[in-house]
Amino acid sequence: MADRGKNGLEFGVLGPLQVLADGRQLVIGRKGMRGLLAMLVLEANRVVPIDEIVDSLWADEPPATARTIVHGYVSRLRRMLEEADPAGSARILTTPPGYQLSVDPWRLDFHRARQLVSSARGKPAPIRAQLLRESLGLWRGPVLADVPGDPVTSDLEELRLAAVEERIEAELELGRHLELVGELRQLVNEYPFRERLVGHMMRALYRSGQRADALDAYQRFHRRVVDELGIDPGPGLRVLHEQVLRDDPALSSPRPAEPAPVPPRPGVVVPAQLPAAASGFIGRDEELAWLDRLCDSRDLATTTIAVVDGAAGIGKSELAVTWGHRRAEQFPDGLLFASLNGFAPDRDPVEPAEVLARFLVALGVPADGVPRDLDDRVGLFRSVLAKRRVLVVLDDAWDPEHVRLLLPPGAGSVVLVTSRRRLGSLVVSNGARMLTLDTLSDDEATRLVDEVAGKPLSDQEPAAVRKLVELCGNLPLALRIAAAKLVFSPEWTVEALVAQLSDDAARLRTLDLPDTGVGVERALAVSYRNLPPDLAETFRAAGLVPGRWVSPHAIAAVCGIDLGTAAARLADLADAHLLVEQWRGGFVLHDLVRLYARGVVENRECGLRRLLAHYLAACDHARRLVRPVSDGLDFPGDATAPRPATSAQALSWFDKEWPNLIALVHAGAEAGLHEQVWQLVRLVHTYCVTRLVSREWHGIAEFGLASARVIGDRRGEMLVLHAVHDINNRAGTLRGTLDQARLAHRTALDLGEPRYLVMTLNQLALALTAEGRVDEALGHHREAVDLARRDGDALGEATALNNLAQAEQRLGHRETAAQHQLLAMEIYHRNGDERSYAVAMNNLAELYAELGLLTEAEEHARQGVELARGGSMQFEEAFGRQVLGTVLAKRGERVAAQAELAESLRLFVRLGSPRSMLVRTALEALTTEV
């Protein structure tokens, strides 16, 4: 049921009116449109006459243009639905005498709620309770709470109350009377005339040892219905009252006593089919304890099912078999085991009919007494085990249907199912519990290597063993194979094996035991071959992404599909344990899975080109939110690119994607996609300047410069050189960059574009200043200001003025510097560059402080800090607090000054800025003042 709503539109009335498109809520608009849509949803797939719509929307006083207004509402609703879902999973049809919403009923929350309630009937109490809780979970509040008028929804309220009553009845059967008393008191107060709720409360109170309260609940209800309705309680409630009065044993908790095990007798065989447990089982203490708790708390009237799922080689079968042997005494009637071969590399899955035949023979049924018909085998299997308590291990299941026919009846039996896929429908239909295995911890993995090798390698070669564990990705199968290789070839050292595993191209080949048919690559190949074509394509695309994690946006770009489809495919791959969703929308491949995926990638260069185009568009959008740009690069295309809406969101996106962007630069350069590589390096420099990411930046900057030079792209070379200069300027490491600045400026002169001349003139002037040649730098700054003004380059002019002010300040011309700085600040503000505006504000505050204008200095510094805090500008905030601390110290406000300087120091240290040394010195001087 859950899978049907992954894509397209969904409609909700069990609460405020809601329309979801691929999980994203749509804004419906004015109240009249909500009222109309609510009517169409409630009457989905049936025609709603237009007269009925008019009467509902305007009651007795419709305007003369009511029909025209309705037509307009319909038109806007159609447009909204079509834009949200062009595939047309829901459409409004014109069907005389009115309109009709054509939609799959499963897209309606109230339909799903009804189906869950209906499917719960006749099921065992645990499953019934689970299905009813799922149904009630669909309610988000009062039905159509935000829709005007009076929609007819009484049947849905009755459905909810019926589901509540049914759920409570199921939980009473499970013995949860103590937990239900408080809830029932509240429900009876809210719905005082519902006899069934009163009856539930009486049972819960009685079974909780509160017999007098149970009788009092009946008496209060009796008085209410007699006084207010003039009737007596119904016969069922009267019978219940009499049972309470006489302490009828039938009222005792329905939880059955533990059935006595059926002793072995002639013709009754006690099977013991579990394979031998692996010697030296390591780790999994939490998982074993989870299985213990599940077994100890199981309902002895039903069958308890646990699904142990996880990736290939993670140790699912080993865990199930080991636990089965440890708890064998809990199952006096036998241990049954079947390998279903769901993911066997060279065998077909075993059909349930064959497994049933083997089980029946193991349970003592003569071979010639096994029925031929599948249904008859199922019936005999259930009859044989009707009062017997067994453990059934179903290993390597392919899908839920593989399992359902092999489930024994009640009597407290336990079924362990292992699978590489999440068999989620067993949770809904059979009340199964899920246990997903992860890789071993570092300590457990190290102990496993020692155990398989038969000697304490971790004591003899600790560093090499740690590296071995890392290269095996803590995967039990890989660790066992690696340790076995050391056993088979005693002359090998751990260091030699690590050296071989360190070669990505050889790692999977090394983690293989050809003579045994066991290997990590073989295990992964089975999972891959079992994927449908669309998921196989997505898996290859995930292997193409060079970074640490994969997003639906990247997959959509590489595969040429929409975002919803990409997300659904990734979720399906997570269900198949070929990747892990570590956060919402963030999917990670295990290192060994990634190596395998890279090996099956098709047309790597074409895929990388699409991926780079995607990230260029995403970075371009995000950087423009951080601050305006004027470098002439523009990448508007790619509908799959994420679209953050604010500067803070853009920086957050960059923070998360930064490792992927670094990896993509390396991969693009290796593939020879040089134009896209230098462009990407240039685009991310805005983020690097803002976050002061200098160490990783210089690594990818080398790739950017080399790529531009390889293809002879002089503009690219100049823009990357300018980006390098920008980072060095922020980090305070401009000394020694004069040759680079001159090269960039010569290139700009050859290109002849004014904005590039402005950029490189500023770059050249700052490089001269770093060498102490400030007088010479002034001329370049002034030339940049004049050129930017002539070209109408407002941001270029502001940047040149800001730099000119800094140079004048160095020469002691503070009043002139303040004039330039004030003008730069105003231009930044007019053009929406809030980050540079905050910098200029702080620079001006510093100038005012040097001029002795302490009031103005404090005012501007505080404004600069507030601007920076509101825009996630950590460097700007740190600088503003440094200036503010200096001003407060000059005013004699020593404690306040210490606080500002301490916070400035903390921020600069976090950023790794060399300015932290200046602030630390100022703070120490202030602290030691007498």
**Shape, principal axes of CA atoms:** globular
Can you summarize the main beta sheet?
A: 5 strands, parallel
Gross CATH architecture of the largest domain: Orthogonal Bundle
| Count of the separate structural domains | 8
Work out the helicity level.
Answer: 55-70%
* Radius of gyration over C-alpha positions, nearest whole angstrom: 36 Å
Helical/strand content category: alpha/beta
Q: Using the coordinates above, name the CATH class of the largest domain.
A: Mainly Alpha
Look at the structure and name the CATH superfamily of the largest domain: Winged helix-like DNA-binding domain superfamily/Winged helix DNA-binding domain
Distance between the termini: 75 Å
CATH topology of the largest domain: Arc Repressor Mutant, subunit A
Quote the beta fraction: 5-15%
Look at the structure and give the mean pLDDT.
Answer: 88
Regions with little confidence, pLDDT below 50 for 5+ residues: 1-6, 255-267
| Main sheet: strand order | 8-9-10-7-11
How many distinct helices?
Answer: 42
Instruction: Give the total of beta strands.
Output: 15
Oligomer: single chain
DNA-binding region: 1-103
InterPro entries: AfsR-DnrI-RedD_regulator, BTAD, OmpR/PhoB-type_DNA-bd, P-loop_NTPase, Sig_transdc_resp-reg_C-effctor, TPR-like_helical_dom_sf, TPR_rpt, WH-like_DNA-bd_sf
GO molecular function, one term: DNA binding
Family: Belongs to the AfsR/DnrI/RedD regulatory family.
